[in-house]
UniProtKB/TrEMBL annotation:
Residues 98-107 have a biased composition (Low complexity). GO terms for molecular function: DNA binding. Residues 45-65, 94-115 are annotated as: Disordered. Belongs to the WD repeat DDB2/WDR76 family. This is WD repeat-containing protein 76.
Length: 479
C-alpha cells in the first residue's frame, strides 16, 4: 500500500490500463493463438531449404590452386551459346586468337546436315521448300528469255520515280524471324515473291515468306545450321535453291533446297567475316578469312582457287559491280576498289582507296556501279563517284550504335538517287548523294526497335527490309 502511494497519478493509470488489456486478451484467447502460430511456423521451417548458405571451412589440401583463365588466353574460340556480356559479336570475333591446338568441331558438324535436323520451327517447312523451288523454275524461265537480262536495268531506271513519302510500314509487314541480334538480311532475288532471309548471332538462319503468311506458321521458318554468329548470306539470282551462309566459327554451308540438306562447303580454324558472289559468276564464292585475307572458293574444283591479303584487319563486306570491280571495307579504316582483271599478284594493288578515321563497316556499289557508299564508325557515310571514282564526299551521320545493336551499314536503293541507313531514333535516314546530306527520315509508330541492317528488293521498287537486334524484320512498302 505504501508503494502504491509512492506512484504518481500517471503511473497508477498506466498500470490500470495494462490490467484491463490483459483481461481483454485473455477473454479473446490471444496468447494461446500466438503460441499455436509460433509452433506451426517452427515446424514449417524444418522442411524449407534456405538459399542463404553460411561459408564452410575448406579442409587443407596439398593440391595446387587452379587459376581461372579466359578462352582467349588459352587459344580457344569463344563460346557463343551464352549471350551475357557478348557485346557486339562482330567486334569481339576480331579479337579471338585461334591456335592450331584449338578444339576441333565434332564429326557431325563437319558433315552434311539435313534440313530436318537443322529445322527448329514448330510446324512443317515443306511449304517454304516448295515456294523456293517454284520461284526458281519461274526465274529460270524469265532469264532464259532473250530479254530476261534487261530485267535489272528496268528496275534501276524506274527507281528514280520513287516518292520517299510513299514508303510506309504496315503492322502485317512486321515479323520476329529469329531470336537475338540479326547480323545479315537478304531478299530472295525472285521477281514474283517476297522471301526474306536473315542470320543472327546464335547461328540461326531464318526465313520469312511474307506472301504465304495465311497458309502456315505466319510464313516464318527457323533453322540452326551454324555453331556461331552468321557472318554472311549469299543467294545468286541464277541459282535460287542454293543459299550459302557463313559463320564466325569458320564454316560455310550450302542450304540446297532441292536436296534438302545443309552441306558443308568450307571449314577453317580461322574466322570468316563476310561472304559474297559476283552477279555473273554462280560457281565462285568470295569470302574474307582472318585479318585482311580474301579467298575465292571455286565449286568446279571444290577448293580455294585464289587467296590474297588485301587489308591489315578483317574485311567486313565484299561487293561487286558489273565492270569487274570489287569493293572491300575493313576495320583498318579503309575501303578499297579492286580491278579483278589485275588482281592476280601476290600483293595486289588497289585501284582506289578511301580512308576513314575509324573502322569501315561497309562499302557497297550503287545499282549502276558508278558510285560507292561507305559507312564508318567515324560518324560519316562516304560517297565515291565520277569516271574513276575520283569525287569523294563525306556526309555526317551518327553511327554509334553501342554494344548491343548491330553497326549501321548504308545501302543503295533501286537506283543511284538514294542511300538508306538506320538511325538511333528508330527510323531510317535517306541520304541524297547529289545533295550530300540527309534529306528525309522514314518513321513509323510500328517501329518498336532500331532497324540497323537493310536490303532492298532487287526487282520490286519500294520494298525495303530492315532488321533489328531483337530478331524483328520490318518490310517497308510503297503503297
Amino acid at each position: 500500500m505504501e508503494s502504491s502511494q509512492q506512484l504518481t497519478e500517471y503511473e497508477l493509470k498506466r498500470l490500470d490500463n495494462i490490467r484491463r488489456n490483459d483481461q481483454l486478451m485473455a477473454s479473446l484467447k490471444i496468447h494461446s493463438k500466438v503460441a499455436e502460430l509460433s509452433a506451426a511456423s517452427k515446424r514449417q521451417r524444418v522442411g524449407i531449404k534456405s538459399y542463404k548458405v553460411s561459408p564452410e571451412k575448406k579442409p587443407k589440401t596439398e593440391t595446387p590452386i587452379v587459376i581461372r583463365r579466359s578462352l582467349r588466353t588459352r587459344g580457344m574460340p569463344p563460346d557463343y551459346s551464352d549471350s551475357k556480356g557478348l557485346g557486339d559479336i562482330v567486334e569481339a570475333a576480331d579479337k579471338v586468337s585461334k591456335s592450331p591446338t584449338s578444339s576441333k568441331p565434332s564429326p557431325r558438324a563437319l558433315g552434311p546436315l539435313s534440313v530436318r535436323d537443322a529445322y527448329r520451327g514448330t510446324g512443317s517447312d515443306k511449304l517454304l521448300i516448295e515456294r523456293i523451288m517454284e520461284g526458281s523454275k519461274k526465274e529460270n524461265k524469265i532469264f532464259g528469255d532473250k530479254n530476261g537480262g534487261d530485267l535489272m536495268e528496268g528496275v534501276s531506271e524506274s527507281g528514280s520515280c520513287l516518292e520517299l513519302e510513299s514508303l510506309s510500314l504496315n503492322p502485317e509487314n512486321i515479323a520476329r524471324v529469329v531470336p537475338g541480334k540479326i547480323l545479315n538480311v537478304r531478299f530472295f532475288p525472285c521477281s514474283d515473291r517476297r522471301i526474306i532471309v536473315v542470320g543472327n548471332k546464335f547461328g540461326n538462319v531464318g526465313f520469312w515468306d511474307v506472301d504465304s503468311g495465311a497458309h502456315e506458321e505466319d510464313g516464318v521458318y527457323l533453322y540452326h545450321p551454324h555453331p556461331g554468329p552468321v557472318s554472311g548470306i549469299s543467294i545468286h539470282k541464277h541459282s535460287l535453291p542454293k543459299i550459302f551462309t557463313s559463320c564466325y566459327d569458320g564454316f560455310i554451308r550450302l542450304m540446297d533446297a532441292e536436296k534438302e540438306v545443309f552441306d558443308l562447303v568450307y571449314s577453317t580454324d580461322g574466322t570468316i567475316y563476310s561472304l559474297s558472289q559476283r552477279s555473273d559468276d554462280v560457281k565462285c564464292l568470295y569470302f574474307s578469312e582472318g585479318p585482311g585475307g580474301l579467298n575465292i572458293w571455286d565449286e568446279r574444283v571444290g577448293k580455294c582457287s585464289a587467296q590474297w591479303n588485301l587489308h591489315e584487319s578483317r574485311i567486313n563486306t565484299i561487293d561487286f559491280n558489273s565492270e569487274n570491280f570489287m569493293a572491300t571495307s575493313s576495320s583498318d579504316g579503309t575501303a578499297c576498289i579492286w580491278d579483278l582483271r589485275n588482281i592476280g599478284a601476290d600483293k595486289p594493288k588497289y585501284l582506289k582507296e578511301v580512308r576513314h578515321k575509324r573502322a569501315v563497316q561497309s562499302a557497297y556499289f550503287s545499282p549502276s556501279g558508278c558510285s560507292l557508299a561507305t559507312t564508318s564508325m567515324d560518324d560519316t557515310v562516304g560517297i565515291l563517284s565520277g569516271a574513276n571514282f575520283d569525287d569523294n564526299s563525306m556526309i555526317k551521320h551518327y553511327n554509334q550504335t553501342g554494344r548491343w545493336i548491330s553497326s549501321f551499314r548504308a545501302i543503295w536503293g533501286w537506283d543511284d538517287s538514294y542511300v538508306f541507313i538506320g538511325n538511333m531514333k528508330r527510323g531510317v535516314d535517306v541520304i541524297s548523294p547529289a545533295q550530300r546530306r540527309t534529306i528525309f527520315t522514314l518513321q513509323s509508330p510500328h517501329m518498336s526497335a532500331i532497324p540497323c541492317r537493310f536490303d532492298a528488293h532487287p526487282y520490286n521498287v519500294g520494298v525495303l527490309a530492315g532488321a533489328t537486334s531483337g530478331g524483328q524484320v520490318y518490310m517497308l512498302t510503297s503503297d
